[in-house]
Amino acid sequence: MSSTAAVTAAIERVPVEICKGMNGLEKVVLREARGSSAEVYLYGGHITSWKNDHGEELLFVSSKAIFKPPKPIRGGIPICFPQFSNHGFLEQHGFARNRFWSIDTNPPPFPTNSSTKTFVDLILKPIEEDMKIWPHSFEFRLRVTLGPSGDLMLTSRIRNTNTDGKPFTFTFAYHTYFSVSDISEVRVEGLETLDYLDSLQNKQRFTEQGDAITFESEVDKIYLSTPTKIAILDHEKKRTFVIRKDGLPDAVVWNPWDKKAKAMADFGDDDYKHMLCVEAAAVEKPITLKPGEEWRGRQELSAVPSSYCSGQLDPQRVLLGGRN
Ligand SMILES: O=P(O)(O)OC[C@H]1O[C@@H](O)[C@H](O)[C@@H](O)[C@@H]1O
User: Which of 56, 197, 208, 217 has the fewest CB atoms nearer than 10 Å to its CB?
Assistant: First the structure.
């Protein structure tokens, strides 16, 4: 297929709009027939909006977010790669979140559910500056899909394209900022009794107690070997977020609370009350890829009316369609 034909095919298949966002930065807008939508900035490959079919925003983005390189955008879904947080010698959370990604007009074959046609493929390859700090050649393909019922799916495919025969190792997270009505009314289910590393206590290992997780102070924990489904219940909004993940064993839970909120220039003093980060991640056991090898990490988010009680995390019931 000629390159022009490939571009045309991609446009026919992907009914998306590309326009200018904040500070003239390019963004892609995905819209589903029933009214849900999502926005992704090429800067960072960063999701900045996910709305349900009533037009309600489901992600938190700070009103003080700075949409200006090299600062990463505060909120939405930053991609942490090739390093999560300060677990290594690179800048905090790696460099993918403050690089310019491109639209991948001709991605390699990808198994797609035939009912989901609203998606965009992005690609990130290292620039010279990256090779100086992380001397590896890679192709990072990100597919962002909006399902017919408004679910948001992110699939990352990372390939080692080194020609020097060297493997590379990375850690990763989808650093999702969920919008919540009031953090003190929120409960997370699915992480009870698990081991976690507490980033506020030198990454020491502890075991979570048996109750659902609630919030009354700063939290920064990496839950290990977590189930593939986690739920965030927002009592006030009567809304439940369900996170499904694959290839991402860990889950980071972060809320900076009042003192750290005040110390962040791109975060409002009271913003901590209205957000919660639950991040599907691969941190404890870094991923190693040999040249030619590819890794996949997938996250699927749904927002549904809260219709179940405490201790009954049953996404089959939550998601009326009973999908697993
Ligand atoms: O301010 P940043 O670099 O976006 O990071 C925010 C937070 O991200 C979380 O994932 C980390 O666990 C926290 O330790 C960190 O403070």
Answer: 217
Q: Which CATH architecture has domain 3-318?
A: Distorted Sandwich (2.70)
Q: State the DSSP H helix or E strand holding residue 13, giving kind and residue range, or none if neither.
A: helix 3-13
- With a threshold of 0.85, tell me whether the complex ipTM lies above it: yes
Q: Give the ligand 1 atom nearest the CA of 220.
A: 12
pLDDT of residue 113: 66
Which residues sit with their C-beta closer than 6 Å to ligand 1?
A: 85, 92-93, 175, 199, 220, 252, 254, 279
Question: What DSSP character marks residue 107?
Answer: P
Which conformational region is residue 266 in: left (phi greater than 0), alpha (psi within -120 to 50 degrees), or beta?
alpha
Those residues whose C-beta lies under 8 Å from the C-beta of residue 117, and which sit 6 or more positions away, are 13, 14, 15
pTM: 0.91
> For the segment 236-280, what is each residue's pLDDT rounded down to a tens digit?
999 999 999 999 999 999 999 999 999 999 999 999 999 999 999
